[in-house]
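Subject: Sanity check before I submit

Could someone independently write out the structure tokens for this chain? I want to compare against mine line by line before I put it in a report. The sequence has 265 residues.
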Amino acid sequence: MNLLHQALSRRLLLGLAAALCVANAQAQSALDDVLKSKVIKVAVQTDSAPYGYVGTDLKPIGLDIDMANYIGKKLGVAVELVPVVSASRIPALLTKKADLVIATLGKNAEREKVIDFTAAYSPFFQAVFGPKTVTVKSFADLAGKSVGVTRGAMEDQELGKVAPPTVDTKRFEDNNATIAAFVSGQVQFVALGASVAGNMLVKNPQLASEYKLLLKDSPNFIGVAKGEDKLKAKVNEILAGAKKAGDLDAMAQKWLGRPAGDLPL
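---
Independent answer below. Compare away.
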């Protein structure tokens, strides 16, 4: 009996040890991996000036890139930028191609079902822009007209909620294609983030276009994979420190011409 009892005890202990190893492996978080590898992978857009775009040296620059580098510096790790378009931002997290998404990502109920969000890090809003010669005072005035949007972007979702059924919504794969369609006259109006539209209008004064209708005030948040609570908490800690130090205001002032202000958690 004693020998049988000892054998069973050893087997039980071995089983517990194996279970603990599995539990420890599962508990390994993205933050642990980042700190161990000394690299954090951040998904960013390169077609969304001034948040993320390619500079004259062909390297990504912008507010989102500054934010990614800021977080990397605070963590003491290198930053690996992962270029994405609007539609591939969330998939980059789900497929573990990126640890964070810092790419003008707005928070809504649908997205919260599949990823988590940190506190907001910069201001943003979406709107419809169009020619000054066409009067648009309400969304009803868009009936029968064509509006270009970037597929999967917040503007795409918000426009769908308020646009009349007869609006001809044309979807494009990234902001550059959406803007090109508007500039070339393929669409009469365009729904974009205000800063992206502002950059477009500055570069194309011949359009004689202007802000028309507000779609949504939507500050930017950082996307984190579900279950990565340690990484989310650490990034929130960094953002809280940046807000207190005035660094968020400084970044927004540098790229948007206005401070970040009182951003939501």
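---
OP: Matches mine. For the report I'm noting this point. The first strand starts at residue 39 and ends at 45.
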